[in-house]
């Protein structure tokens, strides 16, 4: 099965499931679905950054500071976060990513998805999927910040990164977290 054939839950403005659709159709028709964004850091606190392959359905050849992807039909955000992090980093036995917050991404041009943001520490040697990742490295956050205006980033990842910076600046890292629906 190709990634375009993967079945996704379609959700409304409140993230309630209202139907299902193949991934390719959801993208083509701008149907709202669910995604996870996982910030992965190594033992030194450096951020995993990668460039997507040119064959990706969405945002090919763009840089991203998150691993992640779509939440499959019937899958929880938490399960999708662990699955996607292990798949994209090419590891197994990763600790379960910690949920931080959720937001509705909308590009203003018909693409929209509920986005759950997580963080995880990856102290395992990574071996990213060659079908997903064209280049990768663990970079200090200052280097990521320096590259923000220079590299072509995925827009939803940039939106999640901006929200994550605001979240951390507000000191909400220690606030109680409501689990995603």
Structural class: alpha+beta
Q: Characterize the biggest β-sheet.
A: 4 strands, mixed
Reading side by side through the largest sheet, how are the strands ordered? 6-3-8-7
Number of helices: 4
Task: Describe the model.
A four-stranded mixed sheet has the order 6-3-8-7, with helices on both faces. Strands 5-4-9 form a three-stranded antiparallel sheet. The protein has helices spanning 23-29, 77-89, 141-147, 155-169, and strands at 7-11, 17-22, 33-41, 47-52, 63-64, 67-70, 98-106, 112-121, 133-139. The protein has four helices and nine strands, in the order ββαββββαβββαα. Helices cover 23% and strands 32% of the residues. The chain is globular and about 45 Å long. By secondary structure, the chain is of the alpha+beta class. The model has no long low-confidence stretch (mean pLDDT 92).
């Amino acid at each position: 099965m190709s990634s375009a054939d993967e079945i996704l839950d379609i959700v409304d403005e409140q993230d309630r499931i209202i139907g299902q659709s193949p991934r390719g159709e959801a993208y083509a028709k701008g149907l709202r679905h669910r995604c996870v964004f996982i910030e992965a850091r190594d033992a030194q606190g450096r951020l995993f950054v990668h460039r997507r392959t040119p064959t990706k359905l969405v945002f090919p050849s763009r840089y991203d500071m998150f691993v992640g992807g779509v939440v499959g039909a019937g899958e929880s955000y938490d399960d999708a976060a662990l699955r996607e992090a292990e798949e994209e980093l090419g590891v197994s036995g990763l600790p379960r990513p910690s949920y931080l917050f959720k937001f509705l991404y909308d590009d203003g041009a018909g693409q929209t998805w509920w986005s759950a943001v997580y963080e995880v520490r990856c102290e395992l040697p990574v071996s990213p999927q060659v079908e997903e990742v064209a280049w990768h490295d663990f970079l200090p956050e200052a280097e990521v910040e320096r590259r923000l205006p220079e590299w072509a980033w995925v827009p939803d990842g940039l939106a999640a990164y901006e929200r994550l910076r605001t979240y951390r600046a507000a000191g909400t890292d220690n606030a109680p977290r409501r689990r995603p629906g």
